[in-house]
Amino acid sequence: MHPTARLAVRSSGFRAAAGTARLSRFQPSTLPRVVVRFSSSGSNPQYEFIQVTEPRPGVGQITLNRPKALNALSTPLITELNTALLTFQSTPSIRAILLTGSQKAFAAGADIKEMAPLTFSSAYLNSFIESWSNLTTTLKKPLIAAVSGHALGGGCELALMADMIYCTKTANFGQPEIKLGTIPGAGGSQRLTRAVGKAKAMELILTGKSFSGEEAEQWGVAARAFGSYEELMEESLKTAETIAGYSKVAVQAAKEVVNKSQELGLRDGVEFERRVFHALFGSEDQKEGMGAFGEKRKAQWKDQ
Ligand code: CAA
Predict the structure, then answer these.
(1) Mean pLDDT computed over 125-132
(2) 193 CA distance to ligand 1 middle (Å)
(3) Lower Cβ count inside 10 Å, N or C end of the chain?
């Protein structure tokens, strides 16, 4: 377990704070000016709606923390989430990320009170909800969503943006937007349909009916469903830690090729996979992994 980690990100120069030599590979970019502290205790004074921790070696955890509104996804919450994800993406010691909510609610959807007064022109001109997609476009590190309780509307869509979903059997997934006179707006009609097929997605989206975590697992929405909240969190952390223990180069490549399968036809997808597979023969970690197998020892990854 890593002790409290402190890092300071500066938009000009990116100087790591004292005691954080492992942050030296920050990429100079357009990262926001933000000071982030994440600790095993979960106190992050600069965040109001999320908690950021490092519960296991190499694992960063973001916990949605707006309990009175069942983690409704307001714009300020999403802004904090994006900042935390970007910071984890830029922190070399973080190798896998866990996104979770509370036992009662992963997230009960986009914030209805924020959306209620929106007009077409304000939503359109301000690209309302577009920033949610940062999660899928900028995050190269693997993201596991651990879902307990409600994952409705935008909450379901947020979970579907993760690389894999673990949930409790009693989790409450659904796209109830139709009941509010609207439709899914953060990718639900696309990602849920890819996950469960057109017939089921159409039924779920047109009726607004919920489905359980047990069904999510049976239908391939969730990778695994667990009998209790405690088991969910323990198994999610274990999986994140397992992934964090592999070569970063191979993990990023694996995520990239699986995600491409959602966009390319089979022939192009297989071709893309083969190109990336060939490229990995140029990595030191491929030599190390296969060499260690031959020498019957544990591989020492260099992330090169
Ligand atoms: N937005 C804003 N506030 C919400 C919310 C949401 N999506 N979901 C719950 N809350 C708030 C409630 O207003 C309530 O606050 P107050 O105490 O101030 O009234 C608090 O959270 C607790 O909620 P309930 O009292 O309703 O709790 P419950 O246990 O009786 O019911 C629930 C739980 C079934 C999840 C119910 O809260 C509910 O139906 N929520 C809305 C779910 C929904 O429709 N989500 C889709 C939103 S639209 C969307 O997400 C669009 C998109 O695609 C991006």
Answers:
(1) 94
(2) 24
(3) N
Q: Which of 54, 157, 217, 273 is catalytic?
A: 157
Three-state secondary structure string covering the chain:
CCCCEEEEECCCCCCCCCCCHHHCCCCCCCCCCEEEEECCCCCCCCCCCEEEEEEECCEEEEEECCHHHCCCECHHHHHHHHHHHHHHHHCCCCCEEEEECCCCEEECCECHHHHCCCCHHHHHHCCCCHHHHHHHHHCCCCEEEEECCEEECHHHHHHHHCCEEEEECCCEEECHHHHHCCCCCCCHHHHHHHHHCHHHHHHHHHHCCEEEHHHHHHCCCCCEEECCHHHHHHHHHHHHHHHHCCCHHHHHHHHHHHHHCCCCCHHHHHHHHHHHHHHHCCCHHHHHHHHHHHCCCCCCCCCC
Which atom of ligand 1 is the closest one to the Cα of 155? 50
Q: Tell me, yes or no, if 177 is annotated catalytic.
A: yes
- Give the tens place of pLDDT for each residue, 43-76: 566 899 999 999 999 999 999 999 999 999 999 9
Instruction: Indicate the pTM of the whole model.
Output: 0.88
User: What pLDDT sits at residue 117?
Assistant: 97
Is 157 in the active site? yes
